[in-house]
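Narrative of activities, Objective 1.

The group set out to show that a structural description can be obtained from nothing but a protein's sequence at a throughput compatible with the screening campaign. Below is one input-output pair from the validation batch, recorded exactly as produced.
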Amino acid sequence: MTFNKLLKISRPGLWFPTLWIYVLPLGGQVELLENWMFWLGLFFVLFPLNLFVYSLNDLGDREADRFNLRKGNFLFGAKAEEKELKYAVSIASISLAAFCVIFTVLSGWPMILLFLSIALVNVLYNFEPFRIKSRPPFEMLIQVAYILTAVFSSELNQVEPIPWQAVVYLSLFCFQAHLAGEIMDIEPDAMAKKITSALLLGRTNAKWLMIIILLAEVYLLSFWFQDYVLASVLGLFVLWLLLDIFVLFKSKAYTLNQMYLFGYGMNAIGLASMIWILFTGNLLNPVFP
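Output recorded for this entry:
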């Protein structure tokens, strides 16, 4: 298997949530960008970690991915044969073990517990008898495991853990991001008999759930963190979804080109907001006690 195929399996178009959460604990401490350990950790969460997460995900989702037109690219991930995915899982697992040793030497034994937690969550999510990815609403709730990336960043870069208020906000962020993917995948998931929250709710109701989550995020950003810039961005997203529901798409599925456009847009907004939180540190300084 070529490196390009492995890179495609790691879904570079969906790296931004992991990157965003990794950078969050460093907010306002840009001097850490001069530390080589920061860059080593950044490389790890972008490629080896995402390769591990998404190769396991794709191995457990082979049937649904056969029908998924948005797959087969660097934005949304590869379409790969079972043999290729098993090879990718092997490479990713070896990489994860190697980095566990490296980071344990650099930062101490808590890294072992952290890496074991990452492995356990992904097994529970993807494979029987658990396969939480097909057990709504738990397939959404388990997305809070992405916060392990923030724990990893705090340990590696020797900064304070993120406050519990930021954990609450990040949990909502993870729910909303996952639900957006489920909405785009309703048709292939239905064809593969994969049960998701979006499939059970229906496209329009799933969009309303997204709006509720986004409004909760806007509230937290405005009143817990007084970050009116990020709150305004999410507020605009709420207005877009209302336009989507009542005027543009309603209950219709998005076209492939529209999904590509949304994917590029999410990356642009994600990158801009990441830079914002890195330099302001607003999410590390809640005004809510």
